[in-house]
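Bug report (template v2)

What were you trying to do?
Predict the complex of my protein with nicotinamide-adenine-dinucleotide.

What happened?
Run completed; filing so the output is reviewed.

Input:
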Amino acid sequence: MSEQINAFQIAQKQFDNVAEMMNLDPGVREVLRWPAREFTFRVPVRMENGDLQVFTGFRVQHNDARGPNKGGIRFHPDETLDTVRALAMWMTWKCAVVDIPLGGGKGGIIVDPSKLTSVEKEHLCRGWVQQMVHNLGPRQDIPAPDVGTTPQMMGWMMDEYSKLSGYYAPSAFTGKPVGGGGSLGRTEATGFGVIYNVREAMKHLDMEPAKSVAAIQGFGNVAQHAAIGFVELLGGRVACVSCWDRNDKKSYTYSHKDGVDGRFLLSITDQYGTIDKQKAADAGYLVEDGNAWISKDADVLIPAALENQINAETVKKISNRVKIVAEGANGPTTPEADEFFKENRIFIIPDFLCNAGGVTTSYFEGVQNDMNFYWTKKEVLKRLDERITAAFSDVLQTAEKENIYMRDAAYIVSIQRVVNAMMMRGWLHGDW
Ligand code: NAD
């Protein structure tokens, strides 16, 4: 996200609005609208050409009242402390809404990882851990992969942490490769979590999943498994998916008269989520402009690519058949589009509830590491389904009881849980 849209100001504004609705004590607001701890540091790396290059790294720990901080590490050339602060705060709410005993954190390095060799990446990862080692760990702060970082990088980081600590500590990092301490089911977790949420929303709205149609934006990790899950778990039809084409530098929408076959498209998609246009066309797919996804005749819209995709302009194009918007991506809906959804009574599953399947399975990964006993994929996904179903129900009950929008209800559930934990630990110095 660029500096012009200051993500941290947005995160604080969202919090302030709900804090006002909840009539939260001013001192408690002040505790929660800022991170508890922030680290900015320099990581020197000897590059393969012999130069010493110095990178800037961050880690922000927003709140750990409910458990160790949890959140990804991003490697991105536009990374800023404010972006990391915002993402750390959102992680606090995400972990709280699914009721896992973790707080919120996020980290990063200002770097374009595609410009580094594998050896340079490894040194950068190990250097990041060396700077943070005394403030990380299974009982303090547990990072995970995010934009620009991979399971392999988590393997290096976990190894560095273990070496510096003097003992094997697999649960210090999650999102590790399967076989190296990773959990089965992590690949599907976020997309399937979106679909478990959609299934619960359909029950609430009395919709028939098998007669439902979804339009999906994106075809990366989240969208791929949302597309597969919508068909295989619900029996519905997927009208389209879309993706950014790295070669043409533009986005396309892919639809099929019989519905999209997610597994087939996955077999012709590269690791960056670009679908092979020619192979898709040969298999009978209609290839249209990337914006076409939003106006498809569908009951469910699943934005699962980027932020700000449903905005004042694009929201006017959605079909009047749409009943559910399931936010697979982080921040896909702007405040103007939110107003439209409120007025038209379109049911929203807010991002930090809808895409919480990933962090929930990361939590399961840490639990399996600590037990040194690993579950089957079926067991992981069953536990994930139970957690997501319970979280959806908690948020829906609050929305109905208070007669409020689902996004506000999700914030209230999360903030209340964090405030309760702070209160029980005596952080608020008083009788509440
Ligand atoms: P990804 O990098 O695997 O995939 C992104 C997809 O979006 C790719 O298919 C890309 O081609 C597509 N895309 C990019 N620009 C586009 C455009 N203009 N139009 C259409 N498609 C476009 O990313 P991901 O892991 O699937 O994450 C997607 C979103 O979900 C992000 O907002 C991310 O923060 C959020 N999220 C991901 C996870 C997770 O576990 N992967 C968890 C929580 C939230």
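What did the reviewer find?
The chain has a mean pLDDT of 95. DSSP finds 14 helices and twelve strands in the chain.
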